[in-house]
UniProtKB/TrEMBL annotation:
Entries under Pfam families matching the protein: Abhydrolase_6 (PF12697)
GO molecular function: catalytic activity
Ranges where the AB hydrolase-1 domain occurs: 43-278
Cellular compartments per GO CC: membrane
Descriptive protein name: Pimeloyl-ACP methyl ester carboxylesterase
Amino acid sequence: MVTESPLVAHLRAQARRVAVPGPGGDMVWHAWGGPTAQDPVPLVLLHGGSGSWTHWVRNIDALVAAGRSVWAVDLPGFGDSATPPAGSDADALVAPLARAMGQLFGDVACDLVGFSFGGLTAGLLLAVHPQLARQLVLVGAPAMGVVPARQFELRAWRHLPAAEQEVAHRFNLAALMLADPALIDAEGGLALALHLENMHRDRMPRRRLAHTDALARALPHVPCPVHAIYGRGDALYRSWITALQDAYARAAPDFRGLALIEDAGHWVQFERPQAFHQALLAALRAGRVPAP
């Protein structure tokens, strides 16, 4: 077990931990703020693949300070949540996530923010249950169908001796998640510690939909405002990042725009939290106003 960082411990202490029961077991949420928030509409955060709610640790305090009621889930098969009853990819999470959100929020439509695999999951969810969100923000989301071939390669690690696994994780963080490798060891090695903890709790290892155009095919069925935020150096896209604006405009009926964060890679909300916070709040404000 990796020693918990002071930031994670602070957020955990401030949170309400809510376990929502389901057919496969509990889905665990952490919530900050509440009905007395300036904007009580739930701001729901879906983490990326091999992640947990801790993908958002450098963003939660700022969002609560901005007056939001923040709900960060451990998606089924990740973190503290039970594995879904069937399936091993984003489509297997649609039914349990819709059920949990209905139990938590009733008829209230949330603002939904999905990072990477969580963005793909959010798109698939809203294509079937559009009433769940008043707007959608996709952060570093895959499966938009604009990349002709995979843009990165990761090192396998599960077969390695424990002493060698950290070397592989460091390589993978630099290859996929962060544009600046120096951040791996910054703040007492926060990025590495979060990554190690999350990877060892990932029970959904055979995911393939991220390498398809599944999100692009789902978005035509999502009627709410859709926004996109990416790091300009996102390893999923690299030189193809400029094709995303048109891809989203073709796919989403109410696409509101793409924000590219400079000097950032795939885990943009961790790498450039202040710029990401500004882009996210701007998108959320814009999505509350009818399209011209």
